[in-house]
Amino acid sequence: MFGWKRIIAVLIGISVWCTELKAQQYKVSGTVRDAHSQEIIPFATLQFDGTQTGMVSNAEGNFLFELNVIPSDSLLVRVMGYTILKMPVDRTLKEQTVNFEVTRSDVSLKTYEIKANVNFALILLKQIVKHKPENNYNRLDNYKYEVYNKLELDMKNLNKEKLSKNRFTKPFAFILNNIDSTSEDKPFLPIFLTESLSDYYFQSSPRKTKEIIKAARTSGIDNESVTKFLGGMYQNINVYNNFIPVFDKQFVSPIHHNGAFYYDYKIADTQYISNQRFIKLNFTPKRKGENTFIGDIWVHDTTYAVMKATMSVPKDANINFVRRVSMVQEFRQLPDSSWFLYKDKFVADFWAPSPKPGKTFDFIGRKSTTYDNVITNDTAATNIFGDKKYPEAVVVLDSARVRKESFWNDNRPDSLSKNEVGIYKMIDTLQRMPLFQKYSNTVRFLATGYKPFGPIEWGPYYYLFSQNRLEGFRLRLDLGTTPKFNKDLYLYGYLAYGFKDNVYKGKMSALWLLKRHPRMYLYGAYTKDLDNGSHYYDEVGTDNIFTLAIRKGGIPQKFLMIQEQRLEFFKEYYSGFSHQITLLHKQARPYEPLPTAEFYPKTVSSRDPLTTTEVEVKLRWAFHEQFLEGNYYRISLGSKYPITELKLAAGIPGILNSGQQYQRVSLSVSDYVKLPPFGSLYYNVFGGKIFGTVPYTSLEVHPGNEIYYYNKYAFNMMNRFEFLSDQYVGFNVEHTIGNGIFGYIPLIKKLKWRQFWTAKGVVGSLSESNKQLNLNNGYPFRTLQGNPYLEVGTGIENIFKFLRVDFIWRVAPDVLPDEPANKKFGVFGSFKLQF
């Protein structure tokens, strides 16, 4: 009897349940995402406004309400660390989708602080830090993985109607068909897309890395060095490191070993995923304006490994041209239970000034990276380092940039969106449009100074006009070849004319690239022109229109007419070692007030004392130096290691009327060192010695600066030709601090000025024979023997995002009684564009 009653009760329950199921007429579903990074947010709390009806989204950020009656006309979502968002709900629709895009809040976690004797968040942090050595994937002896990178740049906040009517953009109206939108009020235009697929190899001892780029394609750019930087090696971040790079700034990791000094922490949630327990730890900066993040991390409660880290840069961070930055890093568990990198995501909102006051151009960059086919502690990851087919740290295979679409479809982790596919077609169409080429060439001319005309280019334009006391008004025309003439042979020359001295000057040179990787070339040049005081590519010399108004007062210009023939052979090796052999024949003819040639009469053999024939060997060691390749020349982006240069030279008398015999040796060591959280440090230590008795034109003339534009390589409170040495040693230090004291001054803090200090010094001497030859000719040359030169400075940079002001004090030696007092202190300006 009891059994029948139980069966009847069950049947009645099933009937009631079916009736209720049938009565459930309404379904409300959706996804919760971060508004900036578009990453899903799991376990978000959803609630109908003003009611007790709610739920939590699942691990994929999805939710589904099945209701008899929709209890409210709005649904809100709460996620700690984000602003509460409320969305409308239509109470009459049976099925509807409500997607949430929540915005990160800068509210301190102290808002949610609960007074307790024990801070469990700090206990959890301590365990995470304790287990960092065993959870950091770089602890492994070796590993290998396949990495896919996708980088996209979009233009935001576009007005489609205005763009289609503007006379400049109207011819390109077809690109507006590619405008996409995440919502009706956020249109964006994809303008750039790049993809790369690589195999990456790592070995810990000795530390080696290698990347083989198997496939790469970039819309609008076909440059191998750019391809390398868009691969996996140069874009890796690691949340386990104490500091994480963001646009050349070092930000404190939320799991820094002293994280509690920089962050406030709070345990926000605990959830089970695949039968494993994870703890959510929220963090916010303790102090505003420091290089710290705001965000959260999910931690595995058994191994204390990071499963997911979401980090955003606060609005008050001192980064130029960037509105917002979001970073996401995910890890997954390997079969051996260890955790390894699975996915990276980096999203940044950029802005650039517009010609219209108060307006800016807005862009958003999105980089997503996936890591697959991971192999750890296996010879498959180390054999590559002995393979001579791949000598470089980053190798782009010959077939990488000609992969067919079918290859990408088979190997790409995720398919491209409709708009992403359209980017390649759009850029290809633009490149073929004459009007677009005209616009891009105009922008290139204004930015670089060069104007191409098929196989020939003119420039830079800022050398066209200048003026000085010797030449008066000077006119100069520069011409060079382009790759349309020859991709490995670069011919260049200029012709200049002074309207006061009525003398033509000029230069002719040829660069023949014998090999690009590793680099090997021959270079030859003939020059007959005035020495303009510039020795480095980024120095400002006197031979341009911009220096006319910034010369120091009361200091006469000094000139030497240089007639020079030069031949160089350069060879580089994959290790970073290079050597250069130079044959040089040079004749100098100084002008007053410098000692002229009459002070140095010819020797009994009628050889010219101001003419030299020299052989120089330069040895350079720059391990893992990075370059940005141009058509013929390249720009060094530095190395993580010190760069050492050794020069050995000898002057040979009797060849081509040379009247000088000497030997010269010089050595320099330089480096950029990151000192987070205290900015970065540049240093250069140098020294040299000249054996022999020679005129001042072949001695070490310590570089001075006679204009008010700051010179990084010169002594800015020293005049040119003020000090001579035949043996010397010196240093050059610049420490960029960041906010410095400005971070503590409320009004100035908003200006985001940055502070730095500099120090430069040198001590030198002259042999007695060189003193007798060079110090008794009426010109006030000085030596530094027993009285070293020292100048120190500080200043402000990042004024209006690009101006820098240096305040320089000359500490020693004292100025002479007849010298102006302004040689003790000076104010210099310069331009420095940086993030």
TrEMBL record:
One Pfam family linked to the record: DUF5686
Q: What is this protein called?
A: CarboxypepD_reg-like domain-containing protein
